[in-house]
Amino acid sequence: MRVLSNLLADIERLPTRSWRGEIRSAAGMTLEVDGLQRVLAVGDKCWAETVRGQRLLCETIGFRNGRSLLMAFDHLDGVAEGCAAVTDDTAFTLRPGPGWLGRVVNALGEPMDGRGPLASGDHARPLRAAPPPAYARRRVGAKMDTGVRAIDVFTPICRGQRMGVFAGSGVGKSTLLSMFARHAGADAIVIGLVGERGREVQEFIQDDLGADGLARSVVVVATSDEPPLMRRQAAHLCMTVAEELRDRGLHVLCLIDSVTRFAMAQREIGLAAGEPPTTKSYPPSVFAELPKLLERAGPGSNGKGDITGIFTVLVDGDDHDEPIADAVRGILDGHVVLDRRIAEQGRYPAVNILRSVSRLLPGCHRPEENHLLGQARRLAATYDNMRELVRIGAYKPGTDPEVDAAVALHPALEDFLRQGKDDATPSLEAFRRLDHALTLTGDPA
């Protein structure tokens, strides 16, 4: 039976038809092709042949002056005017499945970990798919333990929720994601390193993720030097793999770092296709693509699993109101803000609990947990307002009981929020520790 299944899969891969066009011009990563404009639709794949007899995978991104506009998934070395562009029904197919767990792949679904071919799934899946119909989706499920105290207490994540992690460069996004990957209560994990620095990939996989984390993960990598199509496709491939595992009934944690680099890749593609630049030179297609990607995460329909999505946003110049951050924040179900000032003080993860929000609160905590959370946030806000007066000695102890309680809580709260990447704390234990810290402050409430 297995032999017959493999034979049918091979038959499906056989091309059924082929059309040839001619490359007329090349500019940057974009090719103009004559003869295929009535064959190729936007998003279709084909091959561009080079003078050296090689073939480059391309995607149709638009049309101009009666010609097809193609963008390549690789550099255009060897492509010359008059070279052929050839359509092929099997130019690109995806067959993800449980056999991908523990593997590292590129944006085309090809193995890059040196461990041989991937075990294909039962059927091909489209790279882009619509999320389950809104009415058919279940509601967000129970709270998911991440092992990170600052998250589980102040910005809890529930099964099927979509959360953003907003931070500037070097503030600890990747390390926080690795803590989720190691400790979160999910059946499978899909990790997308989109536009990542090449030297950091092995560091993340070996040091941050570790062997245990990798064993239940699929890692999709597109480094910053790869063409924009590869970077954009890496994010969509993450969602495709997550959807395959979700449809098998698994609870999937999907981590993508970062949505900003996905948007930058789409900006390059849109501008090359002739779109007009708008806000901060981002073309309109960027803001249309973001919800199409992010909405694919979330609760599944009845009888299937869920995709809990955590997406990092690299805020430009620590400006949390820049266009991409603002658009993503309006789509997701909450946001975690990593603060450079906190990181510079040496406290990691550098979560700013006052600026971070989970839209599933207060429903995902028990009443007593919400009471502790409210106390801690109120005292943290009081201390933040009085920080400078306390620092310069202008506040006299005993003037205000609430300020006194906030000052007393601050060291214990900072210690509570400080956590190593190998330190996992169950949610119940985290609330017990917070309750103990609040009891010692003599909080007037």
From TrEMBL:
Under the heading Pfam families, the entry gives: ATP-synt_ab (PF00006), T3SS_ATPase_C (PF18269)
What InterPro entries would the database entry show?
AAA+_ATPase, ATPase_a/bsu_AS, ATPase_alpha/beta_chains, ATPase_F1/V1/A1_a/bsu_nucl-bd, ATPase_T3SS_FliI/YscN, FliI_clade3, P-loop_NTPase, T3SS_ATPase_C
AAA+ ATPase domain ranges (all copies): 159-343
Top-level EC class: translocase
Could you list this entry's UniProt keywords, alphabetically sorted: ATP synthesis, ATP-binding, Bacterial flagellum biogenesis, Bacterial flagellum protein export, Cytoplasm, Hydrogen ion transport, Ion transport, Nucleotide-binding, Protein transport, Translocase, Transport
As for subcellular location, the record says: Cytoplasm
> What reaction gets catalysed by this protein?
ATP + H2O + cellular proteinSide 1 = ADP + phosphate + cellular proteinSide 2
- The EC designation for this entry is 7.1.2.2
Name the domain of life.
Answer: Bacteria
**Which residue windows are transmembrane per the record?**
none
What the record says about family reads: Belongs to the ATPase alpha/beta chains family.
- Name-wise, this protein is Flagellum-specific ATP synthase
**Provenance organism:** Azospirillum rugosum
